[in-house]
Amino acid sequence: MKRLGRGPRVQIIEERPGSTMNHHSTAGSGTTASDEKPLWMPTAKQIADAAVTHFAAEAEKVAGRPLPDYDALHAWSIEDRAAFWDLVWEFCGVVGDKGERRLVDDAMPGAKFFPDARLNFAENLLRRSDDGDAIVFRGEDKVNRRLSWRQLAELVSRLQQALKAAGVGIGDRVAGMMPNMPETAAAMLATASLGATWSSCSPDFGERGVLDRFGQIEPKVLFVCDGYWYAGKRIEVASKVKAVAEQLPTLAAVVVVPYLEIAEAVAADVPRATSLDHFIKPYQHRELEYVRVPFAQPLYIMFSSGTTGMPKCIVHSVGGTLLQHLKEHILQSDVRSGDRVFYFTTCGWMMWNWLISGLAAEATLLLFDGSPFHPTPTVLFDYAEAERMTLFGTSAKYIDALHKSGARPRETHNLSTLRLMASTGSPLAPESFEFVYEAIAPHVQLASISGGTDIVSCFVLGVPTLPVWRGEIQRPGLGMAIEVWNDQGQRVFEEKGELVCTRAAPSMPIAFWNDKDGARYRAAYFERFPGIWCHGDFAEITRHGGVVIYGRSDATLNPGGVRIGTAEIYEQVEIIPEVLEAIAIGQDWDGDTRIVLFVRLGPGVVLDETLEKRIRTQIRTGASPRHVPAKILAVADIPRTKSGKITELAVRDVVAGREVKNKEALANPEALELYRDLEALRS
C-alpha cells in the first residue's frame, strides 16, 4: 500500500477562537464547565505516527497553504473535494485507472466523482496473498477457524469460476442470507471481482423479511447457510431456505454453506440448490481475474430497516464505497497493515460491509457470529485478548449492557494491543464513555461514530489526533460537509437541529433500485431542504467542535412545541441500575404531545412509586423538567430491528392504534403486542 509523506502535522486543538467549529455553550452536549478535561488525549508520538498526520503534510502541498490542525484539513477537504478525494486515492494506493476528471456535475443528487475511472473492488481488498491471517472466525464457542490471505484468495478464485459458470456477470445480483462467517466475505469478493452486485441479510430474518428485500432485486445466485448458532442453541433454517428459494424465480443457483454440517441435506430439498463443496468442486485455484468497472458501477444493494413500509433498496457504488471506507479505516481509524480489526455485526447491518473493507487496509478481520453474551458477558474480550485485537467495534447498547452486567474487562483481560474502541447503532451515553475508560481500557481512543446504511459509512466519527470529550463524537469526517440547521434552514452551533450535508460525497447512493425517475431517492433526503442532504438525525455541534446525536428526527418528541431527542432521556434513565433499557415515544394527547416512557427492568425489579420517583428525578435534574415523561410504564420487552436498534416509530404507531407495516423487519415483532390497548395510556 502506498503511504505518502512523512512529517508531524495535525496538532491537538482544544479551543481556538475564530475556528469555524468553535462556538459557545454546552447545552445538551453531555459536558459542563466542571467537565473541561478530556477523557483521552493522544500522545505526541501517536500524533506523529498517525496516517492522517502524514496525509495532512501531503495535503498542504496540494492546497499550497499550511493546514495546521484537523479542522483546517477538514475545511480544505470540503473546499476542494476534487483535490481531496484525488489525494485519498493516491495516499491509500487505490488499484485502478483514475482517469482524467475528478468531479463533475457537482450537485445533490447528481454529482459524479471520477467519471472516467475503471477499478475493481475485490482487487483492492485482496492486495496480499501470503500466509498471514486474513480472516479469523469464531462462531460462539462452537467454531474457531482462520484463513490466510492465500487461502482466502483460493476460495474467492474457485467461487469466481463457479459464479461465472452460473452466468453471473456485470450488473447481475448475488444475494446472501448468511451468518458473519468467512464464506460470506469470500462470496461477496467473488461477486465483486466479476463486476456483479452483492446484497445480504442475516439468517435470523423471517421468510417475509428476506423476500421483501431480495424479491425486489431479483438475484441470480443466492448463498444461504444450513443453520446457525445463537446463545448456544442450534437453529436450523431448512424450511425457510426452501420457501425463499421457491419464491425467487430468477435464481439460477442456491448455494448452501455448511455451518451446522448439514448443507447436503438442506440442498437436497431445495430447488436449484447445491452445497458449497459441490458448487466449487470442479474448479481449482487459479489467478483471479478482475473485471474493472466504472467508479459508479453498483457494488452493494442495501436496505432500509423497513419498519415503516417496504425496505428501500439503496444502491452503493464500487468507487464511492472503496474511497470512503479507505478514508475511514486508514485516516479516521488509523488502521494499519497487520492490524486486527473487529466489529460486532451481522450481515444485515452496514457495519458488516464497513468491516470487510478493512482488508483493503491490509488488516486481519476478526469475525464473530452469535450472541455477544454467550457463554459469558465477556466473550468478546476473550476474543480480543486471544487475537491481539487493535480495533474493537460494537454498539452503544452492548456497552450499556456490559456496564449493567458488572463486568470490568480491564481487570480480567489483557487489552494492551487495543488502540481504538468504536461504538455505533445508537447514541453513546456520556456515562458509557466514562465506563469504557474506567472499566474497559483507559488507554484507548473511544470513537462514537454515526452515519448509516444511506451512505454505507459515517458522517461523523473519530480522529486519532484529537481528544475524546465525554458524550461527544470527535468530528465530522474528512470530505463530509456536515452542518446542523434549525427549522429555518440556518446553520447553528451549540443548538439542536437537523444534521445536514451541504455538498456531495462519493459514498452517497447512486440510486434506489427500481426508482427509474429518482423520485423516491429525492424524497428520502432532499425534500426538506432542496439540494441539501437532510439525514434525519437530531444533532448539535459542541463548543469543542464535536457532535452529539440526540436520536432520529422522526422520533423526536415535541411536548409543548419544544423538540427533545429521545437519546437525552435514555442518557438519564440508563444511569439507574434497575432499568435495563428504555424506549420513549410521543403520544398525541389533549391537543398536544405527551412523553410516555417504557422501561424494561432487571429480574425481580418492580416499578413502584419509589423507583418511578427516582426515574423522574434523574430525568428532571439530569436533563430538564420538560424531559420528564407524563407516563412511565414497565414492559417485558422492547421491539428492535435486526441490527439491534429500538423502534420508537413502531411503538408509537401501535400505541396510536395504527398498523405497523413490515413486522418482519423486527428481531422480536411479538414485543409490539405488549404496547397495544394499554389501559394506562387512556388517561
UniProtKB/TrEMBL annotation:
Single Gene Ontology MF annotation: ATP binding
Gene3D superfamilies referenced in this protein's UniProt entry, alphabetically: 3.30.300.30, N-terminal domain of ligase-like
Biased composition (Polar residues): 19-33
GO biological process assignments: lipid metabolic process
Residue ranges of every copy of the AMP-dependent synthetase/ligase domain listed in the record: 131-501
Coiled coil: none
Region described as Disordered: spans on this chain: 1-36
PROSITE patterns for the chain: AMP_BINDING
Domain AMP-binding enzyme C-terminal: 577-645
SUPFAM superfamilies hit by this protein: Acetyl-CoA synthetase-like
Keywords: ATP-binding, Ligase, Nucleotide-binding
Acetyl-coenzyme A synthetase N-terminal domain location: 70-124
Superkingdom classification of source: Bacteria
Family: Belongs to the ATP-dependent AMP-binding enzyme family.
Name this protein carries in UniProt: Acetoacetyl-CoA synthetase
Organism taxonomic ancestry: Bacteria, Pseudomonadati, Pseudomonadota, Alphaproteobacteria, Hyphomicrobiales
